[in-house]
Design goal:
Layout (H helix, E strand, L loop, with lengths): L6 H13 L5 H10 L3 E7 L4 E6 L5 E5 L9 H12 L3 E5 L2 E4 H4 L2 H10 L7 E6 L1 H7 L10 E7 L7 H6 L1 H4 L2 E6 L21 E5 L2 E5 L17 H14 L3
Parallel strand pairs: 3-6, 6-7, 7-8, 8-9
Antiparallel strand pairs: 1-2, 2-3, 4-5, 9-10
Amino acid sequence: MNSDPNFSSLLASIARCDAVYEPDDQIARHRFSQLGSTVLGRYCDAGHQAIAHRDPDGWATLTICGTRVSEGSLREHAVDLFEDVDFSPRDIGNGVQVAAGAIDGLGSVYSWAVALLQDQELIRVEGHSLGGQRTHLAPLFVPISRLDRAIAWEPPKAANDTFYQTYAPAIARTITILNGADPWAAWPWISGGLVHPPGPILWLHNANWSWITRESWPGGEMLSASDHDVSQILLSVQHLSAALPG
């Protein structure tokens, strides 16, 4: 199983994944600046929101927004919710299936981000919720040789096992994180072949953590919907970072 997580690094990631939800362009850029990042650009359309930046250590990073429910315009709310709940598997060839809502328009986001970087520069990817689901799909749009690390916070199920087998080198460099009994990380509840990566998966629970697999995760519960709240996860990781600095 994996070594202990670097919770200081994970805290920086979830703070950015929180900040990327900000709908105002200038405020979002300022929040990233306060977190020590140099913003390269911000992408925003009806179905996507992301910030490309260099993190405090100089790594080129793409932070992808999750479902804009409490932030953004009514049109953005509607589009994001539709893409979040659209769990129909889409066959993209060679037996690979991915969540239709997650992949729609995603190529444009990755193409935009890669174009901002130096030639052959490595890139890191991170995101929460729908953004985490889209983080898992990074190897569809970025050469595996250029993907350094990915962090998928509470993603709904993004793809089938053939996808994870096909892109195993990239998935091996991806940290998937589930929190408590988050019901939306268990979405779609009737999967149609869509699953979480085979693991290991980092599970945050009861002010602690453990490495698990998708089979050993107890699953989501509708009465635990607050476990999906990015602000709650931020508090949990702050606690773990203080108690168990990486």
